[in-house]
Amino acid sequence: MRALALFVLLLAIPLAHASIEKWNYYVGSNNYIYSSPVLYNNQAVFGSHKGMVYSVDVESGRGREVLRTSGHFDTHPLLVEDMIYIGSSDGKLYALDAESMILNWSADVGGMWQSSPAYADGVLYVGGLDGKVRALDALSGAELWSFQTGAEIDSTPAVREDEVYVASTDGTIYILGSKDGELEWKAPLGRLWTSAPLVDGNLLYIGSLDGSVYALNLESRTIEWKYSTEGGILSTPTIFQGSLIVGSNDHKVYSLSASNGDELWVFETKGSVQGQAAVANSEQGFTVYIGSNDDRIYALDGEDGSLKWSYDTGGWVASRPLIAGSLLIVPSYSERLHALSTQSCEFVEPPDFTSISGAHINLIGNAWSDFGISGVDVRLKQGAWQSASAGRTDWRATLSTAGLSYGEIVIECRTRSVEGIEQEPYNALTLYYSSMPVEHTFEVEYTREEVPFGSDVVLKITDEKGEPLAGITASWLGGSAISNQKGEVVVKAYGEGQTEITLSADGYETRVIKLKVGTNWALYAGIGFVLILAAYFLLMRRH
């Protein structure tokens, strides 16, 4: 029954733009993903809350589990040359060979929740749940030195030249010597948690639970500027071309001037923004990718903060996405790793699953790319690609039906940009090619809400003038019916999750609609009864 409940839940996950998702990788029930992936040889490597590390091919979406522990992997892995380092709440830091995914060593670091390792000059710097900062030899895991802060460390240290910067939940930034761990100075900044220090030039940027972003001058050891939001900040800042981008629990994404803290733009989501932004640059400007606890990943124009697109993953997006070519790899609390295309296309006309006839197929569609559109290609039945006439966001194409067999045909489209060609799988359109000319169309009125399994559902069919249309055949798995003089036809809602109804008649287009169908509880109750009965008789036999 738990598997059944999960199945029903997954059916209920909304998809904002079905064609934008190339694949998703499922890691199991109650196994959410906070860990931001790293990329090595086309493999996205990340951890999960239930203590597993996975490696997933970003082109195919096929993956495997490479490590299992007793703790949680809610930290982000670090890639250094051919080694991957990732910390666990079980108290250890694990070092994996990036090529073979074999464990090289593990070291006790006092537990790691959301503090990931930092690296410089052959040394790893790690903050622990025990409040200690440790320096480890990156090759062996041997401890070189440690420093005790006043409380646990839940963010990643930063390293610059000969200094290590650590944010402790005791509200203090500690500046330590990278060689010996000696305290050089410290700066009390208030309520620090998972926002990690970001060092750029002589300024250190960090967010606080008091709702403020701080810029600390490392030379004068004073606060250079402070910007206040209306919610606590767990998000680690990202800096790009003079813009500091950070999220807040007030549901907003902020772009600030890194030099003086002036507000450049603000974008509002519908949930807390706790993850770090990723930035992609191109000739057309830069794009900010950032997640929200409203379950969406957002693509924002870096210049003005305007929305390019968003996608509902079905769970919180509270960590940094990975940019892999034209793919955006998004970890989510949906228990899935999502691969989204930052360039793709879709069909607008003709509608999916309709009938066509004649010597040509006229196509109209939309295309998008965060790197600018240089063209759109279409192909029929996996034949040669043909160029469509493309505008900035729309395109048109005409395909010949010469030599085409009657029946189901599939047309695909792909988008070309200045950065390259869209990756498979491509968005597809399914049509029915018929010798019978399509002279008329019709409309179908039906419920979009879920209906009980096995129930009767009334479809109302009207012609181009809105008049009731009789004589349309409705077919589904296991049955069929014809619309009456009122244009009504009664169909049966069989098939858990979804039932496809095909509507057709000579001279009319063929339409396919999909009904949402509830769970067949009677079936599962019957199965449950049989199992209980079998268990009862087995028990009686033993006695």
Can you offer a commentary on this structure?
The chain has 543 residues and is mainly beta. Among the domains are: 117-188, Beta Barrel (Thrombin, subunit H), CATH 2.40.10; 200-276, Thrombin, subunit H (Beta Barrel); 345-433, Sandwich (Immunoglobulin-like), CATH 2.60.40; 443-522, Macroglobulin (MG2) domain (Immunoglobulin-like), CATH 2.60.40. Strands 33, 34, 35, 36, 37, 38, 39, 40 and 41 form a 9-stranded mixed beta sheet that branches. It has a 4-stranded antiparallel beta sheet with strand order 1-32-31-30, with no helix packed on it. A hairpin with a 4-residue loop joins strand 20 (212-217) and strand 21 (222-228).
Distance between the termini: 29 Å
Q: Roughly what is the average pLDDT, rounded to an integer?
A: 89
User: Number of DSSP strands?
Assistant: 48
CATH class of the domain at 345-433: Mainly Beta
Q: What would the principal axes of the Cα set say about the shape?
A: globular
Keywords:
mainly beta; 2 helices; Immunoglobulin-like; Thrombin, subunit H; nine-stranded mixed beta sheet; 543 residues
Brief characterization of the structure:
With 543 residues, this protein is mainly beta. It contains two helices and 48 strands. The radius of gyration is 28 Å and the shape is globular.
